[in-house]
Amino acid sequence: MAGHSAWKNMKHRKAAVDKKRGKMWSKASRAIIVAARLGGGDVRFNSSLRMAIDEAKSVNMPRETIEKAVKKGSGEIDGENFQAIRYEGYGAGGVAIIAECLTSNVNRTAPDIRMIFDKNGGNLGVLGSVSYNLHHAGVLVIERTRIEEDRLMDIVLEAGADDVSAEDEMWQITCAPAALATIRDALEAAQMPAAEAQIMWIPSTTVEVEGEHSAQIVRLIDALEEHDDVQKVFSNAIFID
To answer: What pTM value is reported for the model?
Structure first.
């Protein structure tokens, strides 16, 4: 984790969300439907659903739309059956790219994703072809002005966190994905709720890109994020100004 700021990636995606709010509502709805279908419609017993709803709220998704998505997932009303699938490939300069998708038609999504890679200087690989360059982790961030480091570490390490680091104006907490909900709850119990809490792919190794390679990677990531079936995109790129 050292040397890589997941918080900076969160900020980048948050800015993108602000520009594509309508599309993000559709994606957030899919995430809620899948979470409710897999774990039930009660957030008290389904941490994945709670996280999906939190992300929906972060893009100002209306409460009625959230409730409708939960009902679709729990089977109270009819809804599409979405499948989670991950695509992996390389972009310009050997940058590893992971696209997490929720789709109702894999036969439609797979060629679309391959075409996006091909058109933007990349190559779509097989599952596992690039994910060894990254690891799955929970990431929470909280404003540094709200809590001292010693106090924060007491709370989150007791709850199962692996690391706490300073990233710009935020504290960044990393943990195993299974520990994310427990740490989030511990922070809320201490009246110090996290500003963001997500499960992400964090690079174990990074690739520095600049110039045309940098522009190609940005275009590839933007094109993937524009696709209706793509939920999140992760890479191990470090952009050199």
So the answer is: 0.86
